[in-house]
Every structure is written in structure tokens, then in C-alpha cells.
Write a structure and sequence with these properties.
Helix content is 9%, strand content 48%. The strands form two sheets. It has a 15-stranded antiparallel beta sheet that branches. A two-stranded antiparallel ribbon has the order 1-2. The two termini are 38 Å apart.
């Protein structure tokens, strides 16, 4: 099975985290910039849940956002819709990459041969994308540009362009690592609209393990807020569900920083990997730690988000920095956020 197609089946539904580490920013020309709070967020009992779930989601939607990655917003007709901006973007980009033909690369090629392709591909629900790709059969280097003209695939519409660069790992003709960069790529899905500026790098360690490094500004086109994520590392391990060979669970480990325009910097880590069972939208276990500003006791204020099941979670907070969690949200339901 093609690696990228396997990734789509087994892992893409888990790309729901897009946060970042470091605070140096990145150089991309676009109209999107972060003008929010950059100092560490002071975590309190009043904001712990907002900061923890917002950091996990890369920003809360106007109507709130489900911890599992599915924003609860309203379309123009007032009907409820559920999705994750990060899930929508990551899934859409991987689907695009999976349609590019890298099969010309072969270990048997003895002399340099550069393959160039230019073509237009229609979306299954409207629009088209124009692809210009270049593959060096000897070095394995690939690069290209894709322009999206209201390209709609499975209900998600992309407008703008992306640049692709990376390497092919020999004979299979499949990427071993590649980076997708974008300036003003607009994504519209289920009544939501957001524009991104930055890059996502993919590194495939083997068939079951991949690492993403994400640098991105995300502008909510409904509220106008911009969130900032940079140099965030997300490790996704695909594991067999144990029931059917074509079903996969995933384990997710994260580390990095997330800038919320209202609260500031939140540093993220997983003390226990987040485990999502095949077919579920939400983690059933795992712990996300969110570290903020120094508290009055001298240590960092923190929030601890624990997945209790695929339907419930809780958030605890150390609001004074003494190392003890003195605030507890109690059991919460993803669907009620």
C-alpha cells in the first residue's frame, strides 16, 4: 500500500495538533502577522480550560472548540458543524501530495534524469489545482508549486498556493521527507474560514512513524484573531488496532509552544502520549501539560489536560506555581464545549 495512502487511512485523522516551539518567528511575506500577547500566559482557575483546550486546538472557534479537534460553530443557516482547522488543513495537504506521481524515481537509473510535470487536476466538488513538479531521479530531490483555484476536495476548498520541496527515498518513489510552505493559503470547510502562513515539514521514519514540524500563523477569518505556532514537533506512531489489519490506532507525542493573542505563550508537552482508537475522534487516554508564567510560589503555573475516555476529559491547574494542582474542572464532555 502506498505510504501516503496508508497515512491517510491510519493517521491523518489524528493531525489535530498544530502548535509550536521556540519564539523567533519565521520569514514569510504575507498580510498575516501576530500582534497578540507574547509573554508567558498566567494560568488561573478562570482560564485554565480555555488555555489548555485552545492550545491543543490551535485556537478556539467563536462558538468554542471540541478537545478532540472538532470546532462547534454555526454556518449561515445556523446548522451545527464539526471540524478541526488543523485536521482539515493537514488532511487536505496530504491528499494533495498523495496525488503527485513520484513513481519515476528508481534505484536502477544510471544517469541523471529530471522529470517535470505540468498539469491541472479538478477537485471532486469543484475548482482545480495546477501542478508544476520536478523530480531528479538520481539525487531524489523533488520540488514543485501547486496553485489552488477554489479547489474543492471532499467538502474542503483551498485557495492560494503552496511550494513543495523534499527527497524521495529511492525505488519506491515515495517521499521520505518533504516540506510544504504557504503564504496566504485560505481554507474553507463546513462554514468556517481561516488563512495560514508558514510551513509544515513531514519526516517519515518508517511506515508507522512520522514526525511533523509546524511553523504557522493561523488567522481566523470570522473573528480576525491570529494565533502563532512555531517549530513544534509532533510525533505520530501508527499501531494496529488488534482487531482488523486495516484499522489503526495512533499514539501522539507533542512538545512546543503556542501563542494565543489573548493569553500569550503556552509551552506544551505530553507526559503520557495521547492514544486515539481507530474510529474515534478524541483521545481515550493521555496527558497534555501546558506550562505558563511563574506563579507567586516561585514555580510555573500549569494546566494538565487528561483524556479520560473518547467522550470525557478533565483539566487541572497549578495556579500559584507550588507544584500542586489546586484547581480541577471535574469531568467534562468534549461534545459540550
Amino acid at each position: 500500500m502506498n505510504f501516503l495512502k496508508g497515512f491517510l487511512v491510519g493517521s491523518v485523522s489524528l493531525l489535530i495538533v498544530a502548535c509550536g516551539s521556540g519564539g523567533d518567528g519565521f520569514n514569510v511575506n504575507s498580510g498575516i502577522s501576530y500582534n497578540g500577547v507574547t509573554t508567558p500566559a498566567t494560568i488561573t482557575g478562570d482560564n485554565a480550560e480555555d488555555i489548555a483546550t485552545g492550545a491543543y486546538q490551535n485556537g478556539n472557534s467563536p462558538e468554542g472548540m471540541d478537545f478532540g479537534g472538532f470546532a462547534l460553530v454555526q454556518d449561515s443557516q445556523g446548522a451545527p458543524i464539526t471540524h478541526s482547522r488543523n485536521l482539515v488543513l493537514s488532511e487536505a495537504l496530504v491528499k494533495v501530495i498523495s496525488q503527485i506521481d513520484f513513481s519515476s524515481v528508481s534505484n536502477d537509473v544510471a544517469i541523471s534524469a529530471v522529470e517535470t510535470e505540468n498539469y491541472s487536476e479538478p477537485g471532486n466538488c469543484g475548482g482545480n489545482m495546477s501542478v508544476n513538479s520536478r523530480v531528479d531521479d538520481v539525487s531524489g530531490e523533488v520540488n514543485g508549486t501547486i496553485i489552488f483555484n477554489d479547489y474543492c476536495e471532499d467538502g474542503t476548498t483551498l485557495s492560494g498556493s503552496i511550494n513543495i520541496s523534499g527527497t524521495i527515498d529511492g525505488g519506491p518513489g515515495e517521499p521520505s521527507e518533504f516540506t510544504i510552505s504557504f503564504t496566504t493559503l485560505t481554507v474553507v470547510s463546513d462554514g468556517d474560514s481561516f488563512t495560514v502562513n508558514g510551513s509544515i515539514s513531514f519526516n517519515f521514519d518508517d511506515f508507522y512513524i512520522m514526525t511533523l514540524t509546524i511553523n504557522m500563523y493561523v488567522r481566523d477569518n470570522i473573528e480576525g484573531k491570529v494565533y502563532w505556532v512555531s517549530n513544534y514537533e509532533l510525533s505520530i506512531t501508527t499501531v494496529s488496532s488488534g482487531y482488523y489489519s486495516y484499522l489503526y490506532d495512533v499514539d501522539i507525542e507533542v512538545s512546543g509552544d503556542f501563542y494565543d493573542p489573548d493569553y500569550g505563550l503556552a509551552v506544551l508537552s505530553t507526559s503520557e502520549h495521547l492514544h486515539i482508537y481507530s474510529g474515534d475522534e478524541n483521545p481515550s487516554s493521555g496527558v497534555l501539560i501546558v506550562t505558563g508564567a511563574t506563579g507567586i510560589a516561585g514555580g510555573s503555573t500549569k494546566a494538565r489536560l487528561t483524556a479520560l475516555s473518547s467522550t470525557t476529559y478533565k483539566v487541572e491547574a497549578d495556579t500559584n506555581g507550588d507544584g500542586a494542582y489546586n484547581w480541577d474542572s471535574g469531568i467534562q464532555y468534549w461534545s459540550e464545549l
